[in-house]
Write a structure and sequence with these properties.
With 132 residues, this protein is an alpha/beta fold. Helices cover 34% and strands 12% of the residues. Helix 1 packs across helix 2. The radius of gyration is 18 Å and the shape is elongated.
Length: 132
């Protein structure tokens, strides 16, 4: 099995421009032919920025690099290619946050508890098998 390298790249904002700048940095630092095979972005806007940078560098998604976002924003399916993303239950998150806040206000204190809500992987055209 080939060696797998992973790395976390920080950005300045959760925006398209920040994603594009971060992806440009990654591509500039990589040796020719040694670029990433996949990118997992912390939100869909950063993923869109990564897609733009890949395109600017002549790379094709998903043929050369797969891209995955997070949030499943309303227009993620309209990206080129349509974005594979993780859908989070935003309405449920808001409901639980409001419920927790009301409990804190009512009781004056609240113990911390972990709450897990289900997420879904929405597979679209921005992911595929890694190139050899």
């Amino acid at each position: 099995m080939p060696e797998v390298e992973s790395r976390v790249v920080g950005g300045t904002a959760l925006s398209v421009d920040s994603g594009q700048r971060a992806m440009n940095r990654v591509l500039a630092e990589m040796a020719p032919g040694r670029g990433p095979t996949a990118v997992i972005a912390s939100n869909d806007l950063i993923a869109l920025g990564a897609l733009r940078a890949l395109r600017d560098h002549g790379l094709r998604c998903p043929d050369d690099v797969s891209v995955v976002g997070f949030n499943d924003i309303e227009f993620a399916q309209d990206f080129t290619p349509p974005l594979t993303t993780v859908r989070v239950p935003m309405h449920d998150m808001g409901t639980e946050a409001a419920r927790t806040l009301l409990e804190i206000i009512s009781s004056g204190q609240r113990e911390r508890e972990a709450l897990r809500l289900p997420v879904s992987l929405i597979v679209r055209g921005s992911t595929g098998a890694a190139a050899d």
